[in-house]
Specification:
alpha/beta; 6-stranded parallel sheet; 14 strands; about 10% strand; disordered N terminus; binds uridine-5'-diphosphate-glucuronic acid
């Protein structure tokens, strides 16, 4: 992965270094996952970028060459951007707006209790931009926003401007995955630009000139806004679908990994996002599907598939709990359970909506003794569950346990020494919710196990 990324970094030349065309000055508002990756990758591509945030702590860390969260490759990009003076981090948002040609907005749009996107951060940024417009600017929204938001923001600025400066709103959704964010940014499948302005389009295409070999989807605001929601809902639906088929595999004797492969070879279906697991988590899928459902409800449209996708996902997390209960002969009290993996996916320290939370919550409530290990996410989980035992390695977590539950497919768990499991936890069963452990080896060492969808290790026949 690292070598592919480095190759990608080398292959992508800056579009601006070799040309003397006017280089747009870029400001990014919000230095979370999306904003920081965007800022650092644009700096890597040769742009001059100012990244801003209201959190002084975060800006101080970044100025001291420290990435405030774990995401592969960001540290390398940060060091070189600081060294080459291609990036500035500041809390002075008004000044950063005034000196920019293009302002990217990448602030959070979390769900409010009714499932709608909370746009308060976006509204506050809009207010600051309105106050500080001093020339023509592009306001490019990266945050996932309900359909119609760009038009509302445009109206809000026009109505509140003290002096009438021209500006354009562009919606440019982000499709990067946490844990692969830098790679995804530098290797996009497509770039979506929602705008009706030719002037804005030309400048945005200059910014993304490195990617002219890939499709640009140029459309209106509403279509671009919808593309983001539809993409995430579709991907999540694939996961819920395969999770349901996995249940059926368990009672029929079929093997889910071969089923997924057998259907994924059909190009109309494709091989991706067909891995069963403990249910999807993260800050995007659950929030965006909920957001789409509540938007549709306003128009009296019931998105049945999206609703079912979320419901299946909630049940999926509980199906892991049910498997644990069954392994413990219906008595969890005082059972020693090792939870391997807390992050909602590997290569991140993010635990938002992680299925591990549902599982730990239930086990704690029913008296289990939990030991856990995750390579990156333990500091975050400690804030939610301070009283479970956090271990510094896999061996400590599994020692003497009755059950070992693999919740996240970190590489470290894929390559776990199975013989060692037998010696450290002789009576333990393995519940592999990510289907990463070789079933033949588990059988060889007579370790009882269960996974998702009766997955079986196999040799792929290619001819
Ligand atoms: C997702 C999308 O994949 C990105 O394209 C999008 O930009 C992002 O949301 C966003 O809207 O910001 P992300 O949530 O970071 O990215 O991570 P994914 O790799 O999509 O995984 C989401 C969840 O689905 C994880 O819990 C993962 O374990 C689960 N998953 C994924 C499965 O259970 N099975 C699969 O086959 C794939």
């Amino acid at each position: 992965m690292r070598s592919i990324l480095l190759l990608a970094l080398l292959l992508i030349q800056s579009p601006l270094q070799s040309t003397d065309q006017q280089i747009p000055k870029i400001t990014v508002i919000g230095t979370g996952y999306v904003g920081l990756v965007l800022g650092l990758c644009l700096a890597h591509l040769g742009h001059k970028v100012t990244c801003t945030d209201i959190e002084k702590n975060k800006i101080d860390l970044l100025n001291n060459n420290i990435v405030p969260f774990f995401e592969p490759e960001l540290d390398t990009l940060l060091s070189s951007a600081l060294k080459n003076n291609t990036i500035i981090f500041t809390t002075d948002i008004p000044q950063a707006i005034q000196q920019a040609d293009v302002i990217f907005i990448a602030v959070g749009t979390p769900s409010n209790p009714s499932g709608e996107a909370d746009l308060s951060a976006l509204e506050s940024v809009t207010h600051t931009i309105t106050e500080n417009l001093n020339a023509y600017k592009i306001i490019c929204i990266k945050s996932t926003v309900p359909i119609g938001t760009c038009k509302q923001i445009e109206k809000l600025i026009r109505e509140n401007q003290k002096k009438s400066y021209d500006f354009d709103i562009v919606f440019n959704p982000e499709f990067l995955r946490e844990g692969n964010a830098v790679y995804d940014f530098l290797n996009p499948d497509r770039i979506v630009l929602g705008t009706s302005s030719k002037r804005a389009l030309e400048i945005m295409q200059t910014i993304y000139a490195s990617f002219k070999h890939i499709p640009f989807v140029i459309t209106n605001h509403e279509t671009a806004e919808m593309i983001k929601y539809a993409a995430n809902t579709f991907l999540a639906t694939k996961i819920s679908f395969i999770n349901e088929i996995a249940h059926l595999c368990e009672v029929t004797g079929a093997h889910i990994n071969l089923v997924a492969q057998g259907i994924g070879l059909d190009p109309r279906i494709g091989p991706h996002f067909l891995s069963p697991g403990p249910g999807f988590g993260g800050s995007c899928f659950p929030k965006d599907i909920q957001g789409l459902l509540s938007q549709a409800k306003k128009y009296n449209i019931d998105l049945k598939i999206a609703r079912a996708c979320l419901q299946v996902n909630e049940e999926q997390k509980m199906s892991v709990v049910q498997k644990i209960i069954t392994h413990c002969n219906n008595n969890i009290q005082d059972k020693k359970i090792a939870i391997l993996g807390l992050a909602f996916k590997p290569n991140t320290d993010d635990i938002r909506y992680s299925p591990s939370i549902t599982v730990i919550e239930y086990l704690l409530k029913h008296g289990a003794y939990i030991k856990t290990y995750d390579p990156q996410a333990m500091h975050n989980m400690k804030k939610l569950f301070p009283d479970i035992e956090y271990c510094s390695c896999i061996d400590d977590a599994i020692q003497d346990s009755d059950l070992i539950v693999i919740m996240t497919e970190w590489d470290e768990f894929r390559t776990v020494n199975i013989q060692k499991i037998k010696s450290l936890a002789p009576r333990a069963c393995v519940l592999d919710t990510r289907n990463i452990i070789d079933t033949n080896t588990l059988l060889k060492y007579q370790i009882p196990y269960e996974n998702m969808g009766n997955a079986q290790s196999y040799t792929l026949i290619t001819q």
